User: Fold these one by one.
Assistant:
Number 1:
Amino acid sequence: MLSLSDLTLHYGHSQILHGISMQAKPGAVTCLMGTNGVGKTSLLKAISGTHARSGGEMNIEGNDMPKNTSAHALARAGVGYVPQGRDIFPLMTVKENLETGFACIPKSEWHIPDEIFELFPILKQFLARRGGDLSGGQQQQLAIARALIAKPKLLLLDEPTEGIQPNIIKQIGEVIKYLREKGDMAIILVEQFFDFAYDLGDHFVALERGRVIHDATKADTPRDVLLQKVSV
Ligand SMILES: Nc1ncnc2c1ncn2[C@@H]1O[C@H](COP(=O)(O)OP(=O)(O)OP(=O)(O)O)[C@@H](O)[C@H]1O
């Protein structure tokens, strides 16, 4: 689904990603791991087009995506991005936040599927509540739901468990498993909560200072080996 080859990224003169090559396949959770500051969020920004890469190739479902492809065009091509910190609109209602997910799909598909409320029942209950009045965990659920409304083929999740209470972490884990089992979506999960990531992951990519130091299936990634590679 997604294939990256020799991807580089800079902020001004400072180079953060140094030739990243990796893939993400439908029906699988690819965990992107590494200590703080290795470039995980920057890589998701490059894939989602929210910060243009400086070089390398990106291919989505067989189509080359030039490096100046806009975030909007990538969203239309099937990339759903749930950024770190969620970025929900605090003054808009839950319903309005969900409706912002319509921006990248044809008008004929502008409705909130029942599946969204089956996955996140709390959102149905709080449809008229302002986004900013939800708890952190509920905001995270809203951010994931909003991304799902655009029916992504590739879902990018940046630290979905950060600052969230254990019962909602468990629910988010169940949603990720459900989406994986549907089989048509590739999922890239950036996650510092090691056990959560190791439990969900089918494939593990570890970064160190903007370079890939590990890229293997779960069968070829013993827990202790990965833990050592992604620990300070
Ligand atoms: N907008 C920016 N301008 C300049 N440097 C930045 C910017 N955003 C991130 N960086 C730097 O790029 C490097 C990689 O940051 P990034 O957020 O991608 O890492 P990360 O692996 O996601 O870390 P974390 O787990 O802390 O989120 C860090 O050194 C960071 O300070």
Number 2:
Amino acid sequence: MAEPLRIALAGLGTVGAGVIRLLAENGELIARRAGRPIEVVAVSARDRGKDRGIALAGYDWHDDMTAFAALDAVDVVVELVGGSDGPALTLARKTLAAGKGLVTANKAMIAHHGMELAALAEANGAPLRYEAAVAGGIPAIKGLAEGAAANRIERIYGILNGTCNFILSEMAATGRDFADVLAEAQALGFAEADPGFDIEGTDAAHKLAILAAIAFGTALDFASVDVTGIARIRAGDIAQARALGYVIRLIGIADCDLAGQEAGGEAQLFQRVAPYLVPVDHPLAGVTGATNAVVAEGNFVGRLLFQGAGAGDGPTASAVVADLVDIARGNTPPPFSLPAALLAASVPADPGHRRSRAYVRFMVADRPGVLAEITAAMRDAGVSIESFIQQGHPDEEDGQPVLVSMVTHDGPEAGVARALALLEQSPSLAEAPLVMRLLG
Ligand SMILES: NC(=O)c1ccc[n+]([C@@H]2O[C@H](COP(=O)([O-])OP(=O)(O)OC[C@H]3O[C@@H](n4cnc5c(N)ncnc54)[C@H](O)[C@@H]3O)[C@@H](O)[C@H]2O)c1
Ligand SMILES: N[C@@H](CCO)C(=O)O
Ligand code: NA
């Protein structure tokens, strides 16, 4: 058998320990498939003495992980530390500049610095792979960049954050409280070190921006993702959605209008992460727990659905090691499918022109005239209301604001925004309204 692929592993937390366990259990099978063994030779983490349930005695320990880049005995560095900047980025830059391969699960770093790292990788002939960074164990990047390479991708959307999906589906199934379910997601190893990245939608936005670059051949543009998280969703919204025939899911969605680019200008890139109402008979409605799903619509293949575990030690390790197998086999396409210099510039699309149906929820003072005030604002903004529900909810107590919601007919998003601007100063509203669009 050929020489081993020698790995230095930075980070021995949920994912890092998972990689060690996977290679220990499936190492022989993987060596046969890759044509050569994959061997961890060096490791680094913050705390050398911590009990991780794995034996580290056979590995060369380094307190400073950035030293990996200079080790002759290392072919590929695997970065499983996290953080968009700081030591992870220093390690990534040094590794690629030294011509060594880099495998990472770090979507924050790729979303912020992916273009720079891709250019560095290409300039130094070094492979850069990050399958674990998007949708965990699902081979979504490979499916899109390789399996769907023959297609123009019209639209890409899906459930990209396991923690949020776990929270939303558990709350709906059991009526459990948001904070309680989040604590369980953290204990299961799904959540980011700062779970604000999950619940505010930032983590899903990192992944969406990466997928969009691969799908549309546009330069990675995380900054222009329109992001809304799940923190404002109440049990009452979940109940209202259910009564209307929907479930609530945090969805990342992107499309790209290339007409401008074809006329010599720039492509218009739409990227949004937000909670959506998903019809109960839609394939994404049945995606529960930490499962993720990615839908890609190609102009020849039609609709592809990739589904599987989006977080957790085993599934994420599976994606990390699949990248190592590709490197061992010499299958190293450009990091974003096209060479970095060919990724096209784009401008963010104006969401106001997009059409959708929307669920709009208000917490209102329970007094006469409030509903008339809301419907008048909708009328004045030209928004057509399909249904309006004021429904008692078990959380309510006398004198407390009441949850009322409406569903609009299909119309430009700017219309709902105009109506809510008209209501902005209204003393009848106890908090800002919540808008969730219906997934079409
Ligand atoms: N947990 C998941 O399900 C999952 C899924 C996909 C991607 N990811 C990504 O994988 C990466 C790791 O996530 P995790 O859940 O394993 O995190 P974790 O917090 O469990 O582990 C992080 C590890 O990095 C080490 N570390 C931190 N700072 C370090 C430093 N300066 N030098 C050396 N080691 C250092 C810690 O000691 C720890 O061993 C993150 O980028 C995360 O976003 C995680
Ligand atoms: N915190 C992330 C981990 C996987 O990227 C999630 O919950 O999806
Ligand atoms: Na993946």
